[in-house]
Specification:
Elements: E1 14-17, H1 26-35, E2 43-48, H2 53-62, E3 66-69, H3 74-85, E4 90-91, H4 93-105, H5 115-118, H6 122-126
Parallel strand pairs: 1-2, 2-3, 3-4
Helix pairs in contact: 1-2
């Protein structure tokens, strides 16, 4: 279990978390940090050697705001910390590429007419 933060030691804004650690893996540590009232505002950026989809999904489900691999440059790490600290999300380019490929393979939902289109006059619908 993650040690409770003391009031005299406020939690950090961002934690860089490795997935594989002794005693407790980073996914469980992320889950505990994000679930605890004292540390719920902490944003977790997972940094790992293992570019595996299972780790990405588990980290995001645990509450991580970002996922980078250890081949990231120092500039990319700094940018990642800044992105996560600002409240945004970040994925390693390799993860983003796989996510886009998986999304593109999905069957799109049946197309429905756009709500705004039905309010147009016939003239407006036909004009370029």
């Amino acid at each position: 279990m993650i040690t409770t933060w003391q009031a005299s030691n406020p939690p950090p804004d961002v934690v860089m978390m490795d997935v594989r650690m002794p005693h407790m893996n980073g996914i469980e540590a992320t889950r505990q940090i994000c679930a605890a009232l004292e540390t719920a505002s902490v944003r977790v950026l997972v940094l790992t050697t293992f570019d595996l989809d299972e780790y990405v999904y588990a980290a995001l489900q645990a509450g991580a705001r970002g996922f980078l691999t250890k081949d990231a440059t120092a500039a990319e790490l700094l940018a990642g910390v800044r992105v996560v600290a600002s409240g945004e999300a970040l994925l390693a380019p390799s993860v983003t590429r796989r996510l886009i490929a998986a999304f593109a393979r999905q069957t799109p939902p049946a197309t429905a007419p756009l709500a705004w289109r039905s309010s147009l006059t016939e003239n407006a619908r036909c004009s370029p």
